[in-house]
Amino acid sequence: FCLVTIARSRCIFVCELSTLHSLDGLALLELAFEVTGHLNGHSAPAICLDVNAAGDTLISGSEDGCVRVWDVSRAVSTRALMPPQADKASCSRMEIGAACAGHGHTEHCVLFSAGSTLYAFDLRTPGVVLRQPHGNFMVNEDDIAALTLDDVGGKLAAADDSGEIQVLDFVAGELYCTLDGGHANICSCVAYRPHRAHELYSGGLDAVAVRWDTQGPELLESWSFAPRLGETPSQLLNPRHVHSLGFTPDGAALAIALGDGSIEVLDAVSGQLLGSAEAHRCAASQVLVIASRAPSTGGAAVMMVSAGDDCEIRLWEARRTAPTPSPEHAHFNYGDALAANDASGEGGGRLFTLQPVADMHTNGKPNSLVALSSPCIEGGGFLFVADTTEAITMLQICDRLRRPPG
């Protein structure tokens, strides 16, 4: 508990700090990022991060040619995984392109790419430094830029610099399908839609996002973010490349980080623009949907984190602008909101406003963001940030007393 005095009402209130968001119409708490530590072990910047399903392990892939496995409860590296080309006899080390932690069918595996080759390491193998993969796959023709696993961990999508996406079936041990024709050049990000086993989304440096059906395989939708005729063109230094994708928990809406510094939220099926924000002064490199919470103004909201090449990380509250359910609903469902919007005939308007609620400056340009929430961690969870320094930063999003104006 904490003691709070409010001179305006000439009363003294004793309240629990964790629930004290507003009192007598006056906001008392604000959200803030708090740096809780750093993970040190890489000799070059980490460029990709992921967490396992249990919420106790972080993996990081670096330009030093090494993937590290971290025990986040102790903030220490427990394993180092290195592809065969990165041994001591090599003249040079090939940097890690993308990495992901296995789950479901692949729960004991760490999957990563170096160049155009995919490697699978089994963490049940004894040893601190592992140099021999459990398996490797050479199905991509160009360097692999992004990896993602489906909900059950059986199919891995690998997007490469040619714009193609190869989908591997790890249970059968074979190539499942090839997705091509969606991107004209580098496919920079890829993500499965939650709760839809065969729906895969991709974004590229051709300023296009694509919705795929991997079972077909078939290209379902393609959305261009290039300036349209008559619109103000993006700055030449910041074209509207698609750098990152993030889904709401129900899979109904898609958040996209764009090269002009903006964040856009789309209906995941129709591509309708639901909300947007000019988030960063330079390219927005990352967007991550982290939680649902009840905002201080009442109602419910989804929280997002974005990172940009301006070395800024921002926390956003996606607030609904259309009529909303009663304030006691703490978990916001985008699917319900979209259905209500269609029924009200307001589908042409924007459903959400993105309100910045916290920000912080980083020492380098962020390369990757990942959130981890686990009961084994004191405080409940962390946000991990890999940037152009060698250390990985551990953050917590916390409440703090709002400073009085002036």
Q: Could you explain the architecture of this structure?
A:
The chain has 406 residues and is mainly β. Helix content is 3%, strand content 50%. The chain is built from one helix and 33 strands. It has one helix spanning 334-344; strands at 2-6, 11-15, 22-23, 26-27, 29-39, 46-51, 57-62, 67-71, 76-81, 96-101, 109-114, 117-122, 129-130, 135-137, 144-149, 155-160, 165-169, 174-179, 187-192, 199-204, 208-213, 218-224, 242-247, 253-258, 262-267, 273-278, 284-293, 301-308, 312-320, 352-361, 366-373, 381-387, 392-401. The strands form nine sheets. Strands 6-7-8-9-13 form a five-stranded mixed sheet, with no helix packed on it. Strand 27 and strand 28 (301-308) form a beta hairpin. The radius of gyration is 22 Å and the shape is globular. The model is unreliable at 1-26, 87-91, 294-299, 323-335 and 337-349 (pLDDT under 50).
List the helices and strands and how they pair.
Layout: E1 2-6, E2 11-15, E3 22-23, E4 26-27, E5 29-39, E6 46-51, E7 57-62, E8 67-71, E9 76-81, E10 96-101, E11 109-114, E12 117-122, E13 129-130, E14 135-137, E15 144-149, E16 155-160, E17 165-169, E18 174-179, E19 187-192, E20 199-204, E21 208-213, E22 218-224, E23 242-247, E24 253-258, E25 262-267, E26 273-278, E27 284-293, E28 301-308, E29 312-320, H1 334-344, E30 352-361, E31 366-373, E32 381-387, E33 392-401
Parallel strand pairs: 9-13
Antiparallel strand pairs: 1-2, 3-4, 5-33, 6-7, 7-8, 8-9, 10-11, 11-12, 12-14, 15-16, 16-17, 17-18, 19-20, 20-21, 21-22, 23-24, 24-25, 25-26, 27-28, 28-29, 29-30, 31-32, 32-33
